[in-house]
Design brief:
Structural class of chain A: mainly alpha
Number of strands of chain B: 0
Number of helices of chain B: 13
Helix content of chain B: over 70%
Radius of gyration of chain A: 25 Å
Order of helices and strands of chain A: HHHHHHHHHHHHH
CATH topology of chain B: MetI-like fold
Mean pLDDT of chain A: 84
InterPro entries (chain B): BP-dep_ABC_trans_perm, MetI-like, MetI-like_sf
Low-confidence stretches of chain B: none
Pfam family, one (chain B): BPD_transp_1
Keywords (chain B): Cell membrane, Membrane, Transmembrane, Transmembrane helix, Transport
CATH class of chain A: Mainly Alpha
Strand content of chain B: under 5%
CATH class of chain B: Mainly Alpha
Largest sheet of chain B: none
Membrane topology (chain B): Multi-pass membrane protein
Helix content of chain A: over 70%
Subcellular location (chain B): Cell membrane
Number of domains of chain A: 1
Oligomer: heterodimer
Number of domains of chain B: 1
Largest sheet of chain A: none
CATH architecture of chain B: Orthogonal Bundle
CATH superfamily of chain A: MetI-like
Shape of chain A: flat
Mean pLDDT of chain B: 82
CATH superfamily of chain B: MetI-like
CATH architecture of chain A: Orthogonal Bundle
Distance between the termini of chain A: 35 Å
Chain lengths: 298, 276
């Protein structure tokens, strides 16, 4: 390097400093705009903010109001129904599709992108497409009638008891291929030798599947669960496009509740408290997972 | 894993797998096909699958009636703009964490990544209030800023996982040969980092293109991108099946094309790097 030691010293010190300097803007931006804003939202949830933010603290009043609202209870009940069915069915279909594809079937290279296609679309597109498909007047029911099956009846999207299941259908359609990709990667990672050894020892197909393959897929199950559950809690655009929260409030979810209370009904304090509840739900799922994941890797 | 399977079973499996594939793809295929039919043919009984008179008149009508190109340009500006700004901020950060890791790097990454999983409603109120005060509501600039912020963690994380795949030995060899930090970055690192950066860029453009929570809530007429265009068509106008299909085909066409080339990146991005 340079002949003058002082200059060299300065240069090394600068070089040592650069990594920290270039990291700083990202850190500042992310922590200020996400965690800083979350703290602000948290603060608002303890105030009597309505159409405009107010800094007048009212303790837990918003939270106790929130849980007395039938609108909110409907939202979280819907989320519970939606999330459990969405996660369960997507996992089941994804695992089955991965098992099919893993049989070295013909045309896998073309089939895999087809399974994955819905995932590349926006939830808005998925919601709109399924809105038409499920609409009794123009979609599936109408088509079946045209084809001569006049007794065919499918109007879940207009029925407040069943509308939430149409959200599940659309969401599962979007995500199954993506879950499949996660399981396929897991299946391809299983050592062939173990399977061969098990087969030689006389293990049947089902036994092999249950005793060897499924346990080895544990990491894939875990990531699928975490990813699907955070998508479920965040669900907003799908419901907006598919049902708009209706009929009535039948498909209202916490995210749509939050939006309508904050901006349409001008109850910012209650909206903020619902956002805090959602944040805590996700944190409860996510923090342990990320923690374990990062510890495992190194 | 490959197991010995009988030919019969294999054929059954193939047939089932392809039927499911067709079922999954059907809604997209049907929409695209219907968009090329005349209105009469779109509701014909029994429906024709591909043997009909192909027409593009629906596209003309939709173009005339809606301002498709404005929505399209908004989508392009917002997704490309936020991705490029994001990359400029993220590349140095990811480089620093991947090649000069400190004691806290793992924790920093965890906290950064966690922000991508949090529901956006958690920061909606402050962002909305700030935007209202400085006049950024319903502007492209505003959306570029929000989407840069929202996607920055995933950009950094993806770049980090790509950079981690670059063998450190080569960097050490360059250092041994007396390459300065500048030369190391320009001649050794950059050529190996380009594929990872390109993949991250593609992934992020699609994520930004598909983003609907922020685009729906922060735009009205001026800055609305294609996601809002689709949402505006979601109330079926009478029974204009074919025109509806043409509008939605135009809305998803860019994604249909990009989606085909970017599935690997999407899976990797949406699983936060768990599936490579």
């Amino acid at each position: 390097m340079a002949s003058a030691p002082a200059q060299a010293d300065f240069k090394t010190r600068l070089q040592n400093l650069i990594p920290k300097l270039v990291l700083a803007p990202s850190l500042a931006v992310i922590f200020l705009f996400v965690y800083g804003f979350i703290i602000f939202t948290g603060y608002l949830s303890f105030t009597d903010s309505r159409i405009l933010p107010s800094f007048n603290l009212v303790g837990f009043e918003n939270y106790s109001k929130l849980f007395r609202l039938s609108h909110w209870t409907t939202s979280i009940t819907n989320l519970a129904i939606f999330a459990s069915l969405y996660i369960g069915i997507s996992t089941l279909i994804g695992l089955s599709l991965a098992t099919f594809l893993d049989q070295k079937i013909r045309g896998e290279g073309l089939l895999r992108p087809i399974y994955l296609y819905p995932m590349a679309l926006s939830f808005i597109v998925t919601g709109t497409a399924w809105k038409w498909l499920l609409d009794p007047g123009i979609g599936l029911e109408h088509t079946m009638h045209l084809w001569g099956w006049t007794s065919f009846h499918f109007d879940w999207i207009k029925n407040s008891d069943y509308a939430i299941y149409t959200v599940v259908i659309a969401a599962v359609w979007q995500s199954s291929g993506f879950v499949m990709a996660m399981f396929l990667a897991g299946l391809r990672g299983i050592d062939n030798e173990i399977l061969k050894a098990a087969q030689m020892d006389g293990a049947g197909n089902w036994q092999m599947y249950r005793r060897i393959i499924l346990p080895q897929l544990r990491p894939a199950f875990l990531s699928a669960f975490v990813i699907l559950s955070h998508l479920a809690v965040k669900s907003y655009d799908l419901v907006i496009a598919l049902t708009g929260g209706g009929p009535g409030r039948a498909t209202e979810l916490p995210a749509t509740f939050m939006y309508s209370y904050t901006f349409t009904r001008n109850q910012m304090g209650i909206g903020a408290s619902s956002a805090v509840i959602m944040l805590m739900t996700i944190a409860a799922i996510m923090v342990p997972y990320l923690y374990a994941e990062l510890r495992e890797k190194k | 894993m490959a197991r010995a399977v009988t030919t019969n079973r294999k054929i059954t499996m193939t047939v089932i797998a392809w039927s499911i594939g067709f079922l999954i793809f059907f809604p997209i295929l049907w929409t695209v096909l219907t968009s090329f039919k005349s209105e009469a043919e779109a509701i014909a009984s029994p429906p024709s699958f591909v043997f009909f008179d192909w027409t593009i008149e629906n596209y003309g009508i939709v173009m005339e009636r809606s301002n498709y190109f404005r929505f399209f340009m908004n989508s392009v500006v917002i997704s490309v703009g936020s991705t490029l700004i994001g990359l400029i901020i993220a590349v140095p950060a990811a480089w620093s964490m991947a090649f000069v890791p400190g004691k806290g790097t793992k924790n920093i990454l965890m906290w950064m990544l966690s922000t991508k999983m949090l529901p956006p409603v958690g920061v909606l109120i402050p962002i909305y209030l700030i935007f209202k005060n400085v006049g950024l509501l319903d502007t492209r600039t505003g959306l570029v800023i929000v989407l840069t912020l929202i996607n920055l963690p995933i950009i950094i994380w993806m770049l980090y996982t790509y950079f981690k795949e670059i063998p450190v030995d080569i960097l050490e060899a360059a250092r041994m040969d007396g390459a300065s930090l500048r030369n190391e970055i320009i001649y050794v690192l950059t050529p190996m980092a380009v594929p990872g950066i390109a993949s991250t860029m593609l992934l992020n453009i699609i994520l930004a293109w598909n983003e609907a929570f922020w685009t729906l809530n922060l735009t009205a007429a001026n800055a609305a991108p294609l996601t809002a265009f689709i949402a505006s068509y979601s109330s079926p106008e009478g029974l204009f099946y074919a025109k509806l299909s043409a509008a939605s085909t135009m809305a998803i066409a860019p994604i249909l094309i990009m989606g085909w080339f970017s599935q690997k990146q999407l899976v990797r991005g949406l699983t936060f790097g768990a599936v490579k």
